[in-house]
Amino acid sequence: MELRDYYEEFRTRGVEVVALAVNTREAVEGAQAAVRAPYPMLADPDHRVAEAYGVYNLLGDGLAGPAVFVIAEDGRILWSYVGQHIGDRPAAADILTHLP
User: Fold this and answer.
1) Which of 2, 68, 84, 95 has the highest CB neighbour count under 10 A?
2) What pLDDT, in 10s, does the model give residues 18-73?
3) How many Cβ atoms from other residues are within 10 Å of residue 85's Cβ?
4) CA 79, 82, 64, 36 torsion: positive or negative?
5) Which residues face 20 on adjacent strands?
6) pLDDT at 100
């Protein structure tokens, strides 16, 4: 998991990494343990957050599409990337280039 490998670099830059999954809390906790994610992984079982960011059911599978949002402390979206298929995600090193 690349984000895990770059987590300390994100923290050094004053950024918190948060993952979100359209799933139950229990399932998300299991996934977090399986990938040994040092960052918070949040459950969105009713997909409200995914819908608010426009990434729910993008691929027609009832899940959140792969996406990355760089969000300022005031809530402004500074940069975003929405993937076209499940494996379409930007590299962590690329995300770092879009940080303020």
Assistant:
1) 95
2) 999 999 999 999 999 999 999 999 999 999 999 999 999 998 999 899 999 999 98
3) 10
4) negative
5) 42
6) 83
Asked whether the predicted pLDDT for residue 1 surpasses 70, the reply is no
Domains of the chain by range and CATH? Answer: 2-96 (3.40.30.10)
Task: Give the Cα separation of 97 and 51 in Å (integer).
Answer: 27
Q: Which of 54, 66, 61 is nearest to 19 (CA)?
A: 66
The whole-angstrom distance between residue 57's C-alpha and the CA centroid of its chain comes to 15
Identity of the residue numbered 86: I
HEC sequence for the chain: CHHHHHHHHHHHCCCCCCEEECCCHHHHHHHHHHHCCCCCEEECCCCHHHHHCCCECCCCCCCECCEEEEECCCCCEEEEEECCCCCCCCCHHHHHCCCC
For the entire predicted model, the pTM comes to 0.85
The answer to whether residues 89 and 68 touch, using CB atoms and an 8 Å cutoff, is: yes
